[in-house]
Known about the structure:
Elements (H helix, E strand, L loop, with lengths): L9 E5 L2 H4 L12 H8 L16 H14 L4 E5 L2 H4 L8 H16 L3 E5 L7 H4 L7 H18 L5 E6 L3 H8 L10 H27 L8 E6 L4 E2 L6 H24 L4 H9 L10 H6 L5 E5 L4 E4 L15 E2 L6 E3 L4 E3 L2 H13 L4 E6 L4 E2 L14 H19 L4 E7 L13 E2 L3 E4 L5 E4 L1 H15 L1
Parallel strand pairs: 1-2, 1-14, 2-3, 3-4, 4-5, 5-7, 6-8, 7-12, 12-14
Antiparallel strand pairs: 8-9, 10-11, 13-15, 16-17
The site of 6-O-phosphono-beta-D-glucopyranose (BG6) has 14 residues, from loops.
Amino acid sequence: MGFQLPKDFFFGAAMSGPQTEGAYNKGGKIRNVWDLWSDERISDFHNRVGSYVGNNFYEKYEEDFKSFKDLQLDSVRTSMQWSRLLDENENINMEGVEFYNKVIQSAKNNNIELFMNLYHFDMPEYLYKKGGWENRETVEAFANYAKAAFTTFGKEIKYWFTFNEPIVEPDQRYRHGLWYPFLKDAKRGMNVQYNISLAHCLAVGEFYKAKEKGLLHEDAQIGLINCFAPPYTKENPSAEDLEALRMEDGINNRWWLDIAANGKLPEDVFATLKEVDMLPEMRAGDSEIFKLGKVDWLGFNYYHPSRIQAPKERFDENGHYKFSDTYVWKDAKMNVYRGWEIYPKGIYDFGMKMKNEYPHLKFFIAENGMGVENEGRFKNEDGEIQDDYRIEFVTEHLEWIAKSIEDGAQCLGYHYWGLIDNWSWSNGFKNRYGFIEVDLTNQYKRTYKKSAHWIKETIENNKSN
Ligand code: BG6
């Protein structure tokens, strides 16, 4: 297909604090839920690599920002760790402030715009033990944390985000039992999703309070990042398949999009939740909180579509109502290492959804990438990983992005996920995403893969064309 992106289209990369920093118990950082899980059940993690390591960004950030600059990136997103910025009494940890100030300075020195996200699945342990997102106290605590971050770093950072993928913890920890504490309880999952939504809204409220007080950069913006995977159903769907699609889209996508664009939750979704006794615990006055949740723009993380059909069973194993089942499309091309379908056109379909349903909300691709196992086998005689599959993956996605912009999508930029190989939750370092390899056996040494040279050239060409 080939692509030409607008000249002011930005290119960058995304990462997160808990997946890169390491130094899990240094610099006054308190434990988070990943440290707790790693301590309790290390064998759950691939090769027993728990939350402790990251890719040593804590010590390597200077070198990394130099590489980002060398690769021609204009921006990089990471997340601040709640457990590094605040202690258990919600007081500022000055060593944490010092570290993030050094990171911010290093980004500036290298002309990289730093996008700062506040939460990437990393609940401090003491809050998790009080019920985590099931407890409304945590919602308040998050607003305080956001306020502390805005107040401390407000003048230094332009682009803030409240959450990365707020749908993931309700799904992984509470509904599907995949992450600690391994629950399969759809109703608790709904409460968690609801409380995270409130936390987002209160944090946006804190952002505007800080702005009014003149504590923020004059161009500061607030956003929300989610994996709004466009759902698809079968070619000749039944009414039940279409109903499954409505609720899948409602809970995973429109829930967040309606908060972000309109400051409210989707009414049709709540009407259905009421009918099937799945409403979260709501309090009087919550609708006022939701009004705070509108944002300046969105980040869209895209790896794979979701393929949905009517559920085979009406209720799940815990007696909760089921809205849908997934299925594997017969023509699906798979990333076999991650078990995710590769469907670049999904990125275009999301762009068209935004154009048609949320025309005033701009967005950028906040994550997109390909994790591959055992990449050592692709090394050439000079020891460079020849990751042509990754180049092909990114090219195809950029082509569909370019087409979506041509057709009216307001997509402003692209961040690749995991520019430098990083720790991938319970998968540890199994699947590598980076354009830059990390050698775990040699002090986290960084080495460019073939794709690093390619992205550099691609960005240069796009800017000069
Ligand atoms: C996104 C997350 O969902 O996918 C990242 O924001 C994550 O944190 C990335 O690393 C890739 O998924 P995984 O599970 O292979 O690391």
